[in-house]
Amino acid sequence: MNDKNSGREAALKDLRSTLDWLGDDVRYLDAEVDPVLEATAINKAFDDGPAFVAENVTGFPDARLIASLWGRRDRLHRMMGVETPREATLKVIDAVNNPIAPLEVADAPCQEVVDIGPAANPYTTLPMVQHTGMDGGRFFGSGVHMLSGKYADGLSQLSFYRMSFRGRDYASINMVPGGHGDQIANKYYNEKIPCTINISPPPMVELMGAGSLNPVVFPTAVDELGAAGALQGSPVEIVKAKTVDAYAVANAEYVVEGYIVPSERVWETAEAEELGVQGQA
Fold first, then answer.
1. E strands present in 151-203
2. Strand 193-199 to 143-148 pairing
3. Which H/E stretch holds residue 203?
4. Is residue 215 predicted with pLDDT exceeding 70?
5. Residue 79 near residue 18 (C-beta atoms within 8 A)
6. 196 contacts 247 by C-beta, under 8 angstroms
7. Residue 139, SS3 per DSSP
8. What's the confidence (pLDDT) of residue 280?
C-alpha cells in the first residue's frame, strides 16, 4: 500500500480527520480573515496549492472556513485512493453500481449544539462569503442538500445548490434545470419536501454532492449517499433530523434543516439579474 494512502478509510469518516491525515497539504491561517471579499481572494491565491483553514473569521468566533480542498488533482486522487483520472472515473462508476448503505446512529456530532426558532440564525452562525463588490447578495453554496425517502425513490440525492438567504428562516435555492433535484421538485411540485443541508460533511459525501451524475446518463435517481460510502470504504453515518422528516449526515460540521417548496418562485436579486448571471429560483 502507498504510504500516503495509509489510514485513508479511517481518515475519511469526517472532515477533521481528513485534514489531519493530509498533513502538510493543509495550511492553517491564524491571521483574521474577513468572509467579505478577503476569504475568496485568499482562496484564489491558493489555486493549485494546499487546502487552507482560516482559524480566525471576522465576526464568527466559533467558526472556521476551509477552502481549496478539491483544488488540486493529486489531492483528489489521494482522497479517492487512486493514481489517475481514469481510475477516479471508474471508481465512481463502481461506487454507484455497488453502494454501501448508510448507517443510522442515535447520537451525532452534528447535533451536539441545536438551535431552533429565533436562536437559529444563518447570518450569525454561518460565515457566508462575498466574492465581489458587485454580488447581488450573500450567496451560500457550501452545503450538501440531501433528499431521501420517497422523494429519492427510497434512495438518496446529494447536491450543492446556490442559496440566497432572504431572512432568518427563508432562502431561495437555484437548481440545475433537468437535474435530479429539479426532477424531484417538479414531481412533488405541490408538496413541501423535507431536506437537510450538510455543511462540511465527510469528503466523499461532498464529492458526490459536487459531482454531476448527468441525468442523460443516469436518468433516474441513484443512491448517492451509498456511493459516498463505497468511495470512503465504510457506511456514511446518518442521524434523524430534529425538525423535519429527513436524515442528516452525522459527521457534518453544521446541518440546516428545512423544506424545499417548489411552488414558490422568486428572482435572485435585482443586482444579480442586471449582471445576467442569476435567474429564477
1. 156-160, 162-167, 170-174, 193-199
2. antiparallel
3. helix 203-210
4. no
5. yes
6. yes
7. strand
8. 55
The continuous run of DSSP H or E covering 123 comes out as helix 122-125
Alpha-carbon distance 206 to 224, whole Å?
10
CB 256 within 8 A of CB 151: no
C-alpha cell at 280: 429564477
Spatial neighbors of 217 by CB under 8 A, at least 6 apart, are: none
Residues 181/151, Cβ–Cβ less than 8 Å: no
CA 180 to chain CA centroid, nearest Å: 16
What are the cell numbers at 246?
429527513
What phi and psi, each to the nearest 5 degrees, are found at residue 149? 65, -145
Three-class SS of residue 160?
strand
Q: pLDDT value at position 279? A: 54
Amino acid of residue 245: D
Question: How far is Cα 144 from Cα 198, in angstroms, rounded to an integer?
Answer: 5
Cell readout for 162 is 446556490
Strand, helix or coil at 41? helix
Place of cell 477516479: 88
Distance between CA atoms of residues 281 and 49, nearest Å: 34
How is residue 70 written as a grid cell? Answer: 478539491
Task: Compute the average pLDDT of residues 219-233.
Answer: 89
HSE of 35 in the Cβ direction (CA atoms, 13 Å)? 22
Least reliable range by pLDDT among 3-7, 188-192, 205-209, 246-250: 3-7
Sign of torsion, CA 154 233 175 194?
Answer: positive
